[in-house]
Design a protein that fits this description.
This protein has 71 residues and is an alpha+beta fold. It has one domain. 31% of the residues lie in helices and 17% in strands. It has a three-stranded mixed beta sheet. The longest helix has 11 residues. The chain is flat and about 35 Å long. The termini are far apart.
Length: 71
């Protein structure tokens, strides 16, 4: 006998808050999202942004944020 599981619907669950990663001394007082980190790193090494880069950066920023370490 199998059980039927209801499929999770994204519309019934609000967006979860982003993960916050505390990095002591590695970043400034301002928070920075993962998407911004990736965008800066790829730009620094010479990769030109594509059409989806801003959307991808925004999605990554919603997923993870780097903050200054706890004092």
């Amino acid at each position: 006998m199998s059980t039927v599981h209801e499929r999770d619907d994204a519309s019934t669950h609000p967006d979860p808050s982003p993960y916050r990663v505390h990095l002591p001394g590695f970043i400034s007082d301002a928070e920075i999202g993962l998407g911004d980190v990736v965008k800066r790193a790829t730009s620094y090494i010479g990769i030109k942004p594509c059409g989806g880069c801003d959307q991808r950066a925004a999605a990554l920023n919603r997923w993870m944020i780097f903050t200054k370490g706890r004092s």
